Amino acid sequence: MNDYFEPEKIPIDARILIVDDEEDTLDIFSSQLSNYFTVDVAPSAFLALEKMKRVSYHVALTDLVMPGEDGLELLQKIKELYPQTSVIVISGKASIEMAVKAMQLGAEEFIEKPVEDLDLLKLKIQNILKTKWQGEEIERLRTILTQGFDRKQIIGNSYAIQQIMEKVKKIAPLDTTVFITGETGVGKELFAELIYINSSRKNKKFVTVNCGSLPESLLESILFGHIKGAFTDAIKDKGGYFLEAHGGTLFLDEITETSPAFQIKLLRALEKRSIRKVGGEEDIEIDVRIIAASNKNIEDEVKKGNFREDLYYRLNVIGMQIPPLRERVEDIKLLAHSFVGEFGRKYNKPDLTISAPVMTVLMTREWKGNVRELKNAIEHAVALSSHNTIVLEDLPGNVFQLKKQRTFNRSYDNLPYFQAKDIFEKNYIEKLLMMFEGDVTQAANFAKINRQNLYEKFKKLSIDPNEFRK
Q1: What percent of the chain is predicted at pLDDT more than 70?
Q2: How far apart are CA 63 and CA 110, in angstroms?
Q3: Which of 54, 64, 348, 427 could form a disulfide with 94 if both were Cys (CB 3.0 to 4.6 A apart)?
Q4: Among the ranges 36-40, 320-324, 426-430, which has the highest mean pLDDT value?
Q5: The pTM is what?
Q6: Which residues partner with 90 through β-bridges?
Q7: Higher-scoring residue by pLDDT: 27, 232
Q8: Domains of the chain
Q9: Rounded mean pLDDT of the chain?
Q10: One-character DSSP codes across 56-125
């Protein structure tokens, strides 16, 4: 993929604000960048904020060390007041601690002065703008997809999700039985409900039962109902979920966890379109659409004899496979932003955003627990966040943690700059290697460093990536 924008994808009138107390820096940056963007300049944080009251900027470049209000304070206010503006910090006087603090507060990039490669600066701005454009484009496509079709809580714009949505549009009105398969946490119940709310039965009930969480005797009573005295605790007649869902839809989750004896009773009910309460003698007609689901390979379960073949064919009139999150990585960003909005409202943090390092971790994680695990991780991060930007430390330990214990030298006091820089780089690179368990390619991609350059730093800083591999 080309790192530069295709001409038609450049945001119209992309506006850049440069904040620096050095006039020469403002002139150099402005002259170089004005060929590509609409550029404004401000010699102080105060004047920058005054401009931002009147104009919306895509990106702000700010020095960290300035008289009066410094770049860190400006960064914090931008993230609080104008979260839609991305921030790049540029400084030659800032301490290592200030640079780290800037990234924690949500700066997208940190660039050291003097900036000798202005093309690299332009590229970094373009990449930030491209990310913004892609997010807007995803939202635009999502709007198109939802016209005339209620997506409910299904979030995603990957090819896989688009294919499933097209299938749901076709099968929702058909009133036929559907069997949904997919790993735990992919959202099988959400897709079942999506079929229901786009069907002719949407004005009746949608009833859900987790078949795997109930013993056989209780499951039969819950589904079919019972009469008074049918068993010890049956103190009165009770209708079951089939009757409750009459005219509507019944979702049988984890159906493969049921016993062979129960499967026979369920098959009979589906074939006859009638049920008999536990302890009862009369058949009761039912009008229910069945949607079943399982996190297991249903065909394997049939071969093993764990699930009746005739019941499988009865349920699997139309099959639908929900892919795991790792196979639709492009949905992660959209899901993450949606969950931040949801939990931001819950925890009264409406302006919360996700830092670039956090998004990189989210995008590169395998997510074995799928959407459910991602959602839990985001709720954890939102609840613990103390800034307007979610940083790495806010994530749960199982999502982001150091794999090995090692003492890091954080004492930069009274050191020459080049020594402090080497210490910081060594600590930073070793943490990357720990996070990615010695995978140099992933570490380089995360840090946005050329792989060959990273190997040169290994040699310079005496780092052996093999020490971090399992």
Answers
A1: 89
A2: 10
A3: 64
A4: 320-324
A5: 0.57
A6: 63, 111
A7: 27
A8: 7-141 (3.40.50.2300), 156-323 (3.40.50.300), 326-394 (1.10.8.60), 417-468 (1.10.10)
A9: 84
A10: --SEEEEES--SSS-HHHHHHHHHHH-TTSEEEEEESS--HHHHHHHHHTT-SEEEESS---HHHHHHHH
